[in-house]
C-alpha cells in the first residue's frame, strides 16, 4: 500500500503554504525558517525551565521560613475568610451587636494564646468590632452569650472541648492556608 501524500500546510515562520516531505514538518524547507523555528522552540524550553527553577527556589524559601511565619500567614487567611463570610451574611459584631464600627476584626471565642488547638476552627472565629476585640479584651461574656444563637449550643460545647495544646506542622498549616484561600476565592467569585 502506498502511503498518502501529506496535505499542504502553512509554514509556522514565514506563513507560506508548502507540501511537507514528512508529516511532522512544522516549517517549509528554507534553512532560515527552520533555524528561526528551532531558536523560538529553544527559547520556550528555556523559559519553561527558568519558571520551574523559580518555583523550586520559592518552595525552598517557604520551607526555610520559621513556623511562626506559617502560623501568622494561615491565621491571616482564615481570619479574612471568616470576616468575609460573616460580612456577606450581614451579621453584626458577636460581642456588642453593632453593625457599623470603624473597623472589623475576626475575634476568637477561645483566645489563640489560651488554646492553640482551636486557633483555626471556624466555629471559634466570628466577626467582631475592633473596639471589642482589641480594647475590651474580646468581651468574652457577651461573646459567649450570643454564640449559641449563631452556631448552636452543641457547636459551642464542641469548641470548648477542643484540646488546648496543639503543635501545628508546616504541612498542616499549608493545607489550612490553601483551603482558606480557595474558599475565599469561591466566595468572592460568587459575590462578584
Quote the average pLDDT: 89
Could you spell the SSE succession in H and E letters?
Answer: EEHHEEHHHH
SS element count, helices: 6
Share of residues in strands? 5-15%
Q: Indicate the overall shape.
A: elongated
What's the Cα radius of gyration?
29 Å
Question: Structural class of the secondary structure composition?
Answer: mainly alpha
Overall number of structural domains: 2
In terms of per-residue confidence, which ranges show pLDDT below 50 for 5 or more consecutive residues? Answer: none
- Biggest sheet, open or closed, and with what strands and sense? 2 strands, antiparallel
How far the N terminus sits from the C terminus, by CA atoms, comes to 61 Å
Strand neighbour order, sheet with most strands: 1-2
Give me the count of strands.
4
Give the % helix: 40-55%
Description:
With 192 residues, the chain is mainly alpha-helical. It folds into two domains: 7-64, no CATH class; 66-191, no CATH class. It is 54% helix and 7% strand. It has a two-stranded antiparallel sheet. A two-stranded antiparallel sheet has the order 3-4. Strand 1 and strand 2 (17-18) form a beta hairpin. The radius of gyration is 29 Å and the shape is elongated.
Amino acid at each position: 500500500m502506498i502511503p498518502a501524500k501529506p496535505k499542504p500546510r502553512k509554514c509556522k515562520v514565514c506563513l507560506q503554504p508548502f507540501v511537507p516531505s514528512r508529516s511532522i514538518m512544522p516549517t517549509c524547507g528554507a534553512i532560515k525558517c527552520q533555524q528561526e523555528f528551532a531558536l523560538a522552540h529553544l527559547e520556550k524550553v528555556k523559559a519553561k525551565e527558568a519558571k520551574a527553577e523559580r518555583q523550586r527556589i520559592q518552595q525552598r524559601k517557604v520551607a526555610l521560613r520559621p513556623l511562626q511565619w506559617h502560623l501568622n500567614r494561615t491565621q491571616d487567611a482564615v481570619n479574612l475568610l471568616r470576616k468575609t463570610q460573616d460580612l456577606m451574611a450581614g451579621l453584626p459584631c458577636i460581642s456588642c451587636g453593632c453593625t457599623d464600627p470603624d473597623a472589623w476584626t475576626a475575634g476568637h471565642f477561645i483566645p489563640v494564646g489560651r488554646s492553640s488547638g482551636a486557633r483555626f476552627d471556624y466555629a471559634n472565629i466570628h466577626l467582631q468590632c475592633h473596639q471589642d476585640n482589641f480594647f475590651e479584651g474580646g468581651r468574652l461574656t457577651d461573646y459567649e452569650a450570643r454564640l449559641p444563637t449563631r452556631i448552636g449550643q452543641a457547636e459551642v460545647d464542641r469548641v470548648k472541648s477542643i484540646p488546648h495544646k496543639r503543635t501545628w506542622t508546616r504541612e498542616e498549616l499549608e493545607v489550612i492556608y490553601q483551603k482558606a484561600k480557595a474558599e475565599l476565592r469561591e466566595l468572592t467569585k460568587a459575590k462578584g
